[in-house]
Amino acid sequence: MKKIVLVSAPIVALALCLGFSSFIMNEKTSSVEKREYSKALFSLGKMASVELEMPEETWQDITTKASDKKYHECTVTINGERFDHVAIRTKGASSLDDVKMMKSDRFSFTLKLNKYVKGQKYHGLTKLLLNNNIWDATQMKDAIVYDMCHFIGLPAPLTNYARITLNGKFFGYYLLVEPVDKHFCQRNYPEEVSNIYKPYHNLAYTGEEMKNYTEISNYAKVNGDAASMQRVVAALRSVDEGKDIAAHVDVEGVMKYMALQTIVVNFDCMTGHNTQNYYLHEGDCKISLIPWDYNLAWGGYPDEDEGFGGEFPFDMPPSFDQFPMDGEFPFFGLPENPGMRSKEEVSKIVNFPIDTPFSGDLSKRQFFMKLLANEQYKARYYHYLKVLCNQYILGGGFSKTLSKINGEIGKVAGTEANAFYTNEQFHKAQQTLKLVLEKRATSVLGQMKGDIPATWESQKAQPQLLINSDDINLQLLGGI
Hints:
This protein folds into two domains: 33-182, no CATH class; 192-311 and 338-477. It is built from 18 helices and 13 strands. It has helices spanning 9-18, 20-23, 31-34, 37-40, 56-64, 94-101, 141-152, 182-188, 214-217, 226-241, 245-248, 251-264, 343-350, 366-372, 375-393, 397-409, 423-449, 456-461; strands at residues 48-53, 72-78, 81-91, 108-112, 127-131, 159-166, 169-177, 194-197, 220-222, 278-283, 286-291, 325-326, 329-330. The protein is globular and about 60 Å long. The relative contact order is 0.12.
């Protein structure tokens, strides 16, 4: 006799919401094994080891044609575990051109263990990012920002430092970063099927037609299909109309993201004029945001609507390769005095207004501004601002992480032959970052109390109430 299986209505509804094919493919059974890499590789304070081996001609091809970002084959040994036939390529966009213009070979890299050998992985991890920390004299902005995320429970990549060798010779100290991929999803969202996008979009609702959202849909990184995009658009519509927002948006997660962005003042993302450097997560019929790429936080990226400062009028991610060449350097070139900021610009970083936490036209950030218009949501945003200021920055969280990083790279950062900054510059930058964070926290707390203006308009009207930042030299942090 055949068995008849009855499926409850809630389960059917859930399957329809998630997409039935995705619903039956949940990999929860293997998630425990795939989380092992978090301890094996990303124990901040315990230096990892990555040994690269490849023919010299392969290395020359990688570095001389860096902008191609073509995969090549190499052998990699991670913490003593050897993997043959691993794919390696350069990583980045405009930063690739910056490294070339510096006549350096210190590129960022992506390692993919399973491209040529199916199933090959390091403790469950199949992909690993090696960041060169270009334009970041502190060598720790990414590590600190992601640590802030973990502190408030916002899903973010894991990081750690590694000593890199190339064909048996010391190459440099890099920051290892966990990619936002299926393993990241299994670690952070184990009970659901996730869809991940890396958009170039300001999250404005512009109607139901999917062609209006190609800057999201064209950049699916994990799953991502028509049904998922319909749920994304429904979420954007709910915020635009102010209806059923909690049913479509992970409000708590988005408020954590907003609080983080407000603290770190990164103009190379939607805080400034750009619409990049974040991931959009859709799961269980709700959207949330995942932080990404903070080597230019705290003023490392100039806040000006020129060059790459404006929103990109492209359907594809921008690249220096698209622009005409002027002599030896690309059209935009390297900055003449990288990282130099005026007193007004420094004050803007320290006193960035928490009630209008975007630079430029606020009408282009209505997804966030409409959420802040809800007093209940704004209260949660303020809550996480307080946690980051009182508990992380001023309460010991930052000092604890800083101590770990110093114990790991304090003596060696900047000692490499191909280092962008010296060890002395590293330590000066570290002290400057500490001062910036302390003053930023003081300003944010003052704004929440009402002692300091919290909008662009009110700050312009009462500049005498702002936290003085004349003793900060942001150039010491690095930047473009």
